Backbone:
């Protein structure tokens, strides 16, 4: 019996240690989820910045494309050669500017695509980690409940012996109740009437002595 108790206590201590490690694992997973959330938030901020830059580049590109048409038309229509050459020079400058803006816009579009895909993957990873954490937490709760039940049904608590003693005591009371004489209500009522009659007689005698 003592050996069984020592073994049970050893197992209980081991389970308690495992549960403590599980709590540490949950803290580590929670920290990892927090880091993923931070990375997702930073990526979203960066995505918004890229979108603002894209809009600005589109506006600059549209303006520069209009400038290309304007300087081209002026270069063709100018009668003065010096003016025409200057318009042509500015046309070339705007044309190069258009090419640069288109390249920058293409780079931003690639960045936007990569960031969007990265955010999608981070969200998927975050959902996966959260689901796995909830699943492990549920399994941990079941394990802790089972551990608690095992502890109360094991030799440590000696609950079976307590229940045995309780049942024995209740059985003794039940047997004593069955052996006791049954209560006769009619006889008790007659005894009460006799007692009342005797008391009245004593009272009358007492009053007669005083008169």
Residues:
């Amino acid at each position: 019996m003592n050996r069984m108790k020592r073994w049970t206590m050893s197992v209980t201590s081991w389970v308690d240690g495992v549960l403590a490690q599980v709590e540490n694992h949950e803290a580590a997973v929670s920290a990892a989820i927090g880091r993923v959330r931070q990375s997702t938030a930073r990526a979203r901020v960066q995505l918004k910045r890229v979108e603002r830059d894209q809009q600005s580049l589109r506006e600059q590109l549209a303006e520069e494309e209009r400038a290309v048409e304007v300087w081209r038309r002026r270069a063709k229509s100018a009668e003065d050669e010096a003016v025409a050459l200057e318009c042509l020079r500015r046309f070339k400058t705007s044309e190069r500017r258009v090419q640069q803006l288109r390249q920058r816009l293409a780079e931003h579009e690639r960045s936007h695509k990569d960031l969007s895909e990265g955010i999608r993957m981070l969200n998927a990873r975050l959902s996966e980690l959260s689901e796995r954490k909830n699943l492990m937490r549920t399994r941990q709760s079941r394990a802790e409940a089972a551990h608690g039940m095992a502890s109360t049904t094991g030799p440590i608590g000696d609950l079976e012996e307590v229940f045995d003693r309780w049942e024995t005591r209740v059985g003794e009371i039940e047997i004593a109740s069955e052996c006791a004489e049954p209560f006769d209500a009619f006889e008790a009522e007659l005894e009460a009437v006799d007692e009342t009659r005797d008391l009245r007689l004593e009272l009358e005698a007492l009053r007669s002595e005083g008169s």
